[in-house]
TrEMBL record:
Belongs to the RecA family. RadA subfamily. It comes from Kocuria varians. This is DNA repair protein RadA. Residues 150-164 have a biased composition (Low complexity). Residues 398-505 are annotated as: Lon-protease-like. Plays a role in repairing double-strand DNA breaks, probably involving stabilizing or processing branched DNA or blocked replication forks. DNA-dependent ATPase involved in processing of recombination intermediates, plays a role in repairing DNA breaks. Stimulates the branch migration of RecA-mediated strand transfer reactions, allowing the 3' invading strand to extend heteroduplex DNA faster. Binds ssDNA in the presence of ADP but not other nucleotides, has ATPase activity that is stimulated by ssDNA and various branched DNA structures, but inhibited by SSB. Does not have RecA's homology-searching function. Keywords: ATP-binding, DNA damage, DNA repair, DNA-binding, Hydrolase, Metal-binding, Nucleotide-binding, Stress response, Zinc, Zinc-finger. The middle region has homology to RecA with ATPase motifs including the RadA KNRFG motif, while the C-terminus is homologous to Lon protease. The gene is radA. The lineage of its organism: Bacteria, Bacillati, Actinomycetota, Actinomycetes, Micrococcales. ATP binds at residues 109-116.
Length: 505
């Protein structure tokens, strides 16, 4: 080493080093040292982008002052976050009571399921209800003279504009097309404004001009910003549109309803960040060949996520169904082998549903297993339990198991009904009339207790049923209605001995 030369480590530290570059997935935040086409965490394609050199400290510095200082939580006024009913009972049930000012709600569903019809009907009812309240406040002379001045004055006292205006922004259809649908479903109101815009800046300008109390955007994938590269519906565009609309909703205390598209797998199109940013995520489900539609809350910051709303999509609009129990039961004059009724609890609502099973001798070496409205892997497990634990020969039979009315049953409490329907089809013996079965079945053939046993019994008794086969529980079935018979079972064999006694002779 030369005299006076710097040590090796110090010499290297004085050199200019090339800043390290990292790549981050815009969907889940996964990082990698080199670019890849597919994220190694969420398996999304084309979402890994260069993030630049790593920094020891963040770039954002603290602001010199804040507009709204922090306050004790006990001094925060929560009255501004009250629920406002939409006058659509089933929608209010799922949302937890209605619309909350400043909330952003995302409604997703397959094409043609009725998303636009539902939101247009809700927007018209909110606008018509607000207009009616304003007319009642103004008095009988609201149309002319002093009453009109009082009405306009009372509406202008809040935020400098009408607090009950509803703006419907459509990016998929023209204004004339939406008007035709509104006339068909009787969703016309003087305080419901319609704008056909596909540019985000134009939609925000409409919001600035009207200052609506409720904003409906149909849909978030059709709006695009000229400041962001990419076509409408892309990851960057959806992120920018959602961020801008959420900022406008929070700063103006404006409730916002967003329509979202879904992919062919059934998930919401666009970045996963969209579901994290919004306050409520609702899924609108239904079979295109059936009029019944179900609304579920996947995420809800203001209410429960276990509620379900039921709607009937008619020719003249969409109607809330407050008692849907009879919609998922077939109407046959005589008992048919292979059918069994069950009670599933969707949220806090017990629903009566029917399971149908059909068995046929297979003509191939590999018997077919087909399901509709039920989990296929769950049905395969129940078939194995029936054959191994109850001795029902099903190995060489084609099995078809389905529900009635397009309802999808995911609760394990329907296991017993599926097994009894399969056993009934295997023996070609119909189950007794006015009978329901529910209970979860394990791999050992045991029938496990399920929640809300008494509530299910009360519901089927109200509908006129007289018998129920339920799992045995330590607390018992609870209070039994007069004239109603409840039989508790602990195994599948016990249920089959009860429902299929040996034939005489």
């Amino acid at each position: 080493m030369r005299v006076g030369a710097a040590p090796y480590g110090e010499a290297m530290s004085t050199k200019t080093r090339k800043p390290s570059v990292t790549y981050r997935c815009t969907e889940c935040g996964w990082t990698t040292a080199k670019w890849v086409g597919r994220c190694g965490e969420c398996q999304a394609w084309g979402t890994v982008q260069e993030m630049g050199g790593s920094q020891e400290h963040g770039r954002t510095r603290a602001a010199s002052s804040v507009a709204t200082p922090a306050r004790p939580i006990s001094q925060v006024d929560s009255s501004v976050a009250r629920f406002t009913p939409t006058q659509v009972p089933e929608l209010d049930r799922v949302l937890g009571g209605g619309l909350v000012p400043g909330a952003v709600i995302l409604l997703a569903g397959e094409p043609g399921v009725g998303k636009s019809t539902l939101l247009l009907d809700a927007a018209a009812k909110v606008a018509a209800g607000a207009a009616g309240e304003a007319m009642r406040t103004a008095g009988p002379n609201a149309s002319t003279g002093e009453g009109a001045e009082r009405a306009s004055g009372s509406r202008a006292t809040s935020s400098g504009a009408s607090p009950r205006t509803v703006l419907y922004v459509t990016g998929e259809e023209s204004a004339a097309q939406v008007k035709l649908r509104a006339e068909r479903i009787n969703a016309l109101s003087d305080t419901l404004y319609l704008a056909a815009e596909s540019d985000l800046s134009a939609a925000l300008a409409q919001v600035e001009a009207l200052s609506p109390d409720l904003l409906v955007v149909d849909s978030v994938q059709t709006l695009a910003s000229s400041e962001i590269e990419g076509s409408a519906g892309g990851v960057s565009q959806v992120r920018e549109v959602a961020a801008s609309l959420i900022h406008a909703a929070k700063t103006r205390n404006m409730t916002t309803l967003l329509v979202g598209h879904v992919t062919k797998e059934g998930s919401i199109a666009g970045p996963r960040l969209l579901e994290h940013l919004v306050d409520v995520v609702c899924q609108f489900e239904g079979d295109k060949h059936s009029r019944i539609r179900l609304l579920r809350a996947v995420k809800n910051r203001f209410g429960p996520t276990d509620e379900v709303g039921c709607f009937d999509l008619e020719e003249n609009g969409i109607r809330s169904v407050s008692d849907p129990s009879g919609l998922f039961v077939s109407r046959t004059p005589v008992p048919v082998a292979g059918t069994c009724l069950s009670v599933t609890v969707e949220g806090r609502r017990p629903l009566l549903a029917e399971v149908q099973a059909l068995l046929d001798k297979s003509s191939t070496a590999q018997p077919r297993r087909a399901t509709a409205g039920l989990d296929g892997s769950r049905v395969a497990m129940l078939l194995a339990v029936l054959q191994r634990r109850a001795g029902v020969a099903l190995a060489s039979m084609d099995c078809y198991v389905s529900t009635v009315g397009g309802v999808r049953l995911t609760e394990p409490a329907t296991d017993l009904a599926v097994c009894m329907a399969l056993a009934s089809a295997a023996q070609d013996r119909p189950l007794p009339q006015r009978l329901v079965c529910f209970g979860e079945i394990g791999l050992a053939g045991e029938v496990r207790p399920v929640p809300e046993i008494n509530r299910r019994i009360q519901e089927v008794a109200r509908l006129g049923f007289t018998h129920a086969v339920v799992p045995a529980s330590p607390s018992g079935p609870g209070k039994i209605p007069p004239g109603f018979s409840v039989r508790e079972v602990t195994t599948v064999n016990q249920a089959m001995e009860l429902l299929f006694p040996p034939r005489a002779g």
